[in-house]
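Researcher: Quick one. three chains, 1103 residues in total.
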Amino acid sequence: MEVKELTCVICPLGCRAKVYVEGGRAVGWEHLECKAGEEYVKREVERPLRDFFTVVRVKGGGVLPVRSTGPIPKERLKEAVKELAAVEVEGPVRMGEVVVKNLLGLGVDVVATWELE
Amino acid sequence: MKVEEFEERVKGDPSFSRVSLRISLEGEILFLEGETESWEQVVELGHLAAGVEGVRGIVNRLWPRGLPKPERKREGKGKAAWDGMRADVVVVGAGIVGAGIARELSRYELEVVLVEKEEDVAWGQSKGGASWIHGFAGLDVDPTSLKAKLCVEGNALYDEWAEELDFSFKRPGLLAVVMEEELVPLLEVAAERVREHGCPVRVIGREELHRMEPGLPPEAAGALFFPTYGVVAPYEVTIALVENAVANGVKLLLGTEVIGVRVEEGRVKGVITDRGEIFTSFLVNAAGLYSDEVAELAGAPEFTIHPRKGEMLLIDWKRAGACLHNLAPGELKEDPYTKGGGISLTVDGNMLWGPTAQEVPYKEDTETTKEGMERVWRKFSKYLPSIKRTDVITAFAGVRAATYTEDFHIAPSRKVKGLVNVGGIQSPGITAAPAIARMVVDILRKEGLELREKVSFNPRRRAAPRFRELGDREREQLISLDRRYGRVVCRCEHVTEGEVVEAIRRGATTLDGIKFRTRAGMGRCQGGFCTPHLLRILSRELGRPVEELTKKGGKSRVVMGRIKEPFLGG
Amino acid sequence: MRVEGEVELVVVGGGAAGLAAALKAREEGIEEIWVLDRNERPGGILPQCIHTGFGLHYFGENLTGPEYIHRFIRRAREEGITIKLETMVLRLTKEREVVAVNPSEGLLKLKAGAVILAMGCRERPRGSLLIPGGRPAGIFTAGTAQRLLDLEGYLPGREVVILGSGDVGLIMARRFAMEGVEVKAVVELMPYPGGLGRNVVQCLEDFGIPLLLRRTVTHIHGRERVEAVTVAEVDGEGNPIPGTERKIPCDTLVLSVGLIPENELSEGAGIELDERTGGPFVDEFMRTSLEGFFACGNVVTVFDLVDHVTLTGERAGKSASQYLKGELPPPRRVREVRPGENVRLVVPQRVSGEGPVTFYLRVSRPLREARVEVGGKSFFRKAVRPPEMLTVELGKEEVGGLGGEIPVRVLGKPLG
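Model:
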């Protein structure tokens, strides 16, 4: 069994939890003050998800901000940035237009969060 | 004191027991060599040696045991761009002194080349944000010294310079304020001594003082008022001088460092730079902090510069009304580290407090220190209690080029014909600059330089427009001529794109170059807002990518590449 | 100079606060609304805040900065609100004269029926911190670094140390890490991080970036470009402890050491400012001390969430509209709000008692099992921390019953 220290981010209390992990699952915890916190550490241990956003290069200079349409596994963030590093867009791009489809096969798209003329 | 007496004195002093000292006298130049225990001892011995009778200069090669020597990295630029250039006179150093000399020489039918190692002018001592145009060189200065004489002469010449060259110049006067009642009777005594220097002065009583300067605290008991004290921004004066000199035919070579002097049969034949050799018979050494090294390169050392660091605090111009005159503390016991200095008004409405005075071993040491900044704050905040710490925009440090005789060293070399040294120019050097320029031209004439007046010489230079200082009608006119004067890129100082473009046209190639010409980035946000704008404009006007642009030349790149480069093998 | 004559409502600043104010005023039937913005695009700082976390309260959605503000920009366009870009307001007078300049029209002189101040805030620069050392290239405020990276597409540096763990600093740490820039450390003077817990976890811990608490940068090394910084531990007063110095090689120092409401224009007009917030004193109508001048967003006090900024903008927009229509109740019985124990600042600082009041307050230290007391009314919170703003609402009747002064304090147990 592995013991992990996790900070709960659900509320300003910010409990520093001790989480007991076995087979990639949280099987026990200490120093958590509420039910929502327990749910949080379970999720953080089993499948931590993060919003993904970056900018992509625009042909002829400049950048365009983009995001994923849903969160992706934390450990794939860096891979996602690398994937986007090679992308270059050309105007016009509409707000919300898909820039990369099915990012890393994760079932989410990458869309523009600003418009480009 | 004779040389022997000096030697005896050092030997007899137990605090110098671990100093190894060799003394030699060549002509009127005294050489010190050996090792000391500390930098303080190096400076102390140098000053002591200056007391030896008949000595014109001290070359102090003492160095403290164990202290690393300064590295003078001379990276050959590889491009011999100036090789074979010919000049009648080469002036080294585009600070206010060198620029003043070059501009004075541009009155005559001469090929004048002004060489500067930095990528812009006024980046040495002349970078300071404010300088007093002193009425006299100071109570502790011998009225017969060269600096006392040139100070008074220079002060009188400033109105003409300002008028011709169109730089900001004000004469708000100086109040030397005493905070203790018992010092008030001494003011009249001091005033008498000031008058011996040829400087107008008046004793001010308590009531009048508080009327003149309402921001002073109640303790302020009296003052000496010096009505002829003025202020300029030394970099602005330097830029104006260089612009006018160039307009009158002077060649300005930036980013060019002198690495040798060709001397043949005891006479200057050429100046070797890292970008090629320039043939000339006359070399004016106005290299400021490095003037001792340039003289050394010519094989004619006459003095050593000991760097004296000064730290200053810059106060937001929002507090411009808090102080109406330059202020100096009238104190009996001076803090030796802030000796001199004061509260300077700047031509832009800010105040500058300081500087400190600290002897440092390295000429490049322009780092601020906690102690220095604290000292300045403690010393001057008591004079203006309404100023809060949050009014301090920034701190910076500069280094003065002092010689051990602590006087200007302006003279033709007695060893190498054609070399004129202009060294040891510290305070009141800015004040003296116009007088120095005239004096140096006189020396050159006596040394055999033929001077024929140039009919086409135009003494006038026009400053670039400053949006911030214009009235609404003038602003309107300016914008109708050039729309870019309607685009404010520096929100703190209200600097427009038009001004930035004009600064680049006049020679700015870096962020600091723009800053010193326009004030963009000098305000309370210190460039946070305008930096991206300035990069874009610089890139466009110079046709160079943003990644190559620098803050102040050399390796001071502003950004370190384009986004995504780390992933694209960049 | 072009004298445009009367403009009903002038909004200074087209960021989150200004746009919300303008839209609300339009909703209230104000026809002539001019938003003056000095930038080349509207939206203030939000277009460069490309991360998510915006709009959770206001829209109930998790948006990026550009997405959040784009909704307001689009609506403002649809509503025909005049947004003048690259338009710098040069001065305001208490007679509500507005002098501004832009490249296409030159100088503009307006007489406004009402003015809404929405200039936002700026970052505290290095100079004001007086960090000893050299003045090399490579020192940026977090916002400037963010603009260079995410609006202009340049890398401010390759090896970065960040001073200050406010949210902007934390968010930049993540952005750097994501873009292949090494973040050597985030240095924080206080014993706790300056930003939200969520950001500490997701911006630092996720990327293995060390957070050095109770430490500060005591020296900047480098003549041309930053070469290193010295970091030292600090004592209880924030003074560096000799002997604890450590030199960290880096080419960039990013500062995230505080934001200052930008009130030079307000000061110039003669509006009274609160030393605690750095912004104008306002009442629950976002009314300043000067008649016809309203203020909202970060120019009033630096808010934690853009959602709050938007809400104060709407409040100011509504109040200015009521004022223009002669419907705003005059400040009759003004009561001062007095920040007490553990309260660093409160907005509004004045209450006229003519309507419900939303108080925004910041605590001075972290507390648990906290009781927020406003004019004798108590509100409970599990925990409170300085980075988060507390909001407390009082109804019109509750406010009406309060005495001449409204004390505000927060009690609780220390939170480590």
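Chain B has a mean pLDDT of 94.
Researcher: Thanks, that's what I needed.
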